[in-house]
Every structure is written in structure tokens, then in C-alpha cells.
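agent> fetching stored inputs for the S-adenosylmethionine docking request
agent> found them:
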Amino acid sequence: MPGRAGAGTVAELLREVAATLARARLHFGHGTATPRDEAAALVFHALRLRHEAAPAAYRHAVTPAQRERVRALVRRRIDERMPSAYLTGVTWFAGHAIRVTADVLVPRSPLAELCERGFEPWIDAGRVRSVLDIGTGSGCIAIAAAHALPRARVDAVDVAPRALAVARDNIRRHRLQRRVHALRSDVYAGLGARRYDVIVSNPPYVPPRAYRRLPQEYHAEPALALRAGAGGLAIVARILAGAGRHLRPGGILVVEVGDSEGAVRRRWPRLPFTWIEFERGGGGVFLLAAADLAH
Ligand SMILES: C[S@@+](CC[C@H](N)C(=O)[O-])C[C@H]1O[C@@H](n2cnc3c(N)ncnc32)[C@H](O)[C@@H]1O
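agent> prediction call returned; pasting C-alpha cells
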């Protein structure tokens, strides 16, 4: 697109950006799945359009200054292989706007769907009073859970202070400071003997060797958010080991392990994992009941 004339309307600009992104052979794995989705994210952001304004907004005229703003974003997306959410500073998770910086993983977990349903049918949402989100990053899971479970208090923990700063900013923007608390904790280490109805986590689970081979876009994210030792299972093992001591009776543990699902099944052959299916796609998420983990 840079250097080309045209782009008279939003629709034309979207088509041009999508074609440019497709030609650049980028990786689309950070909340957008296609060049067209990604073009929409960049164009709507640069033109300060709300996504709800589509499709009427497609007919709007684009000024030269707006076109240049879009081009600058597209150039960075291509030259730096930067996920578009870092360029726009915002993404959507379970229908909620979440601010992101390069200090946090770009939210994209299938757990969004489960948060929206208040973890039903796996637990009665009406009786959930406490949730722990381990490795909260931007705070997306904690915030989505709090919105779906208005009577629950949520502890959002992370070991990375810079991630916690982003999470606190998001918690404040969502006016959830009274119920969602961002805490520094190495897995459970900072939580004393607290117990929860729901423990949920999207921890780092990429084995170091697989991490090195990931497309460049993933290397723009904090390594601490993706890479984990012990074949990807170092943090998962600690979450499993302590869950029995931190779940209330009747509580549940829900953990995303992505492509490490096979490794999890092999390492803990006797744990009765339920592997959750999602309507909107994605997988590699297991569920265990407190009774399966009792200490
Ligand atoms: C895959 S990211 C998930 C971020 C966010 N929950 C999401 O779904 O987008 C994993 C997060 O776990 C954090 N983390 C890594 N090791 C940790 C540990 N030992 N204790 C707590 N958090 C940890 C990272 O800093 C990162 O924010």
C-alpha cells in the first residue's frame, strides 16, 4: 500500500491494507486470524472508528492525513513484525476492551469463552465468591471473570511487576478495583493459605526448543509469558501441586496448556482431566475438580 494512490473510502483502504498484509506473509495469531481482520483492527484504530460503526463506516471518505496514519501503522506491522495489538494499544477479550503494552501477552486465550459463561456448566456461577487468576498478564481473564461473576472477588497474580502495572491500569479502567486485586506472587507463593472457588490460569507452557522456532511476532511478547522449562510444564506442575491446598470444597481448577496437552496427559496419567471443548475454537484447556486434587 505505501506509495499507492486511491483509498478514497474506508472500504477501499481496508481492501488495500488487507492485500498489503497478505503479501507480506505475516503471522496472524494474536487475536486476528486473517489479513482482513488485521486490516480492520489497524484501520479502525487509526481512523478512530468504533467497530460497532461498521458497515456504515465503510462508506466514509478518508483524508490524506488519515491515510498516512494507517500507512505508518502498516509499515511498522510489516517491518517490525509487531503484533497489531501492540501498535494500537488495545484489544478485545470476552467482549471487553483491554489495554496492552509489550510488557504483557496479547490476550487471545480460548478461556475468554469460559469466563463469559461464569465457568458454567463446570460450576454453579451463582455460588462463586472467589477466583484466582495465575499469570494474569494484562488482567484480561481476571477482568472478564469479574464482569461475569458480579459477586466474586478476584485475585489476579503475576510474577512480573511490569505486567502487574498493566493489569492494574486495566482493572481501574473497568472500575473493578474493589473486587479485583492485582498481586505479585510466584504461582501461589504470595497467597498464604487463601482458598478459592475457581483457580484459572493461562500460564507459560511453550517448551524452550519450540519457543525458539515460533514466528517473529511471538518474540515481541515477554519470553516469561510464553516459555517454560521442564518441556513447557514447569509452571503447570507447580499449579497442579498446590491447587488442592488453595481450592475450596466443590471448587475447580481450569488451566490452558495449548499444544502441551499431550505432554500433560503423559506426565500425569492418573489425573482425571476433562479437556474442555469451545464453541469458538481453540483447545488445550483442562479442568479438574477440588476432589481430584485434595491434599
Ligand atoms: C501466557 S501469559 C498469560 C497472560 C494472560 N493471563 C492472558 O491470558 O493473556 C502467562 C503469564 O504468566 C506470568 N508468569 C510467568 N511465570 C509466573 C510465575 N512463576 N508465577 C506467576 N506468574 C507467572 C507471566 O508474567 C505472564 O504474564
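agent> quick read of the result: The pocket of S-adenosylmethionine is lined by residues 104-105, 107, 109, 134-138, 140-141, 157-160, 163, 186-187, 202-204, 224-225, 235 (CB under 6 Å).
agent> awaiting further instructions
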